[in-house]
Design brief:
The chain has 12 helices and 4 strands. It is of the alpha/beta class. The chain has a single domain, classed as HUPs (Rossmann fold, 3-Layer(aba) Sandwich). It has a 4-stranded parallel sheet, sandwiched between helices. Helix 2 links the parallel strand 1 and strand 2.
Length: 250
């Protein structure tokens, strides 16, 4: 049986040990208003103290609901939450691309992936800023879970980029159980997962349920359709898992 209390204690000790060994100070993370970032924020506040955690909301032509839900998390755990609207930066870049006579339909996937890349650049900018401001190193915390990572549901150079990850080996259901133990606001914890970048939920975009991905990972029975989809997603994302590096001849 999954023991959320034990897992939280292990994660918190992992964070504390890593920070002590590296003489580090704080953490920065994007707060989307979803369960993963809510749970990660709670874990880092518990490990480092809320005074050493900075959350960032980064709207980019997205809904206001996410910012409101992010505020619920910040108020619950007492960490600083700053807002950096990336809409103008995105538009300025997009105007340059449009000047190259690019067709809108050809840019759709580029646009979707550019937003998380802008957000991660912002996370690192703020981490460097707060490292100078507070006189100690702030790391960028990742928020991806095992189900997302297994099927490659992340953006290279975007949400795949971070300094420390704590949910990488937990399925969506396990993340929720950890969130329940940490008392993450229910509106955030049980919200239907979506990237706030398109009109589709995560499961709509993937074509498979997170519960099916978790079952597959754990070696449990899933439908032939789900198995085929999961294996195809995992295989097609192979380029995201390992960067090929040529090794020169001796």
């Amino acid at each position: 049986m999954f023991d959320a209390k034990k897992e939280v204690e292990g994660i918190v000790q992992f964070i504390r040990d890593y920070y002590e060994k590296g003489h580090l100070k704080g953490a920065v993370l994007g707060i989307s208003g979803g369960k993963d970032s809510g749970v990660v924020a709670a874990l880092f506040c518990k490990a480092l103290g809320p005074e050493n955690v900075v959350g960032i909301t980064m709207p980019c032509h997205t809904t206001e609901e996410c910012a409101r839900d992010a505020q619920l998390v910040a108020e619950k755990y007492g960490f600083e939450l700053i807002n950096i609207d990336l809409s103008e930066a995105f538009d300025a870049f997009h105007r340059q691309i449009e000047g190259l006579n690019a067709r809108e339909e050809d840019l759709r996937n580029s646009d979707i992936n550019f937003k998380p890349r802008l957000r991660m650049a912002t996370n690192y900018y703020v981490a460097a800023w707060y490292s100078a401001l507070k006189g100690g190193t702030y790391l960028v915390a990742g928020t991806s879970n095992l189900c997302e990572l297994y099927v490659g549901y992340f953006t290279k150079g975007g949400d795949s980029t971070y300094d420390i990850g704590v949910l990488n080996e937990y399925t969506v259901e396990e993340v929720i159980k950890i969130g329940e133990y940490l008392e993450v606001p229910e509106k955030v914890l049980y919200k239907t997962p979506n990237d706030d970048l398109s009109s589709l939920t995560d499961e709509d975009k993937l074509g498979v349920k997170y519960s099916e991905i978790a079952a597959y990972i754990h070696g449990e029975e899933v439908s032939p359709e789900a198995r085929e989809k999961i294996e195809r997603l995992h295989a097609s994302a192979a380029h995201k898992f390992h960067i090929p590096t040529y090794h020169r001849c001796a």
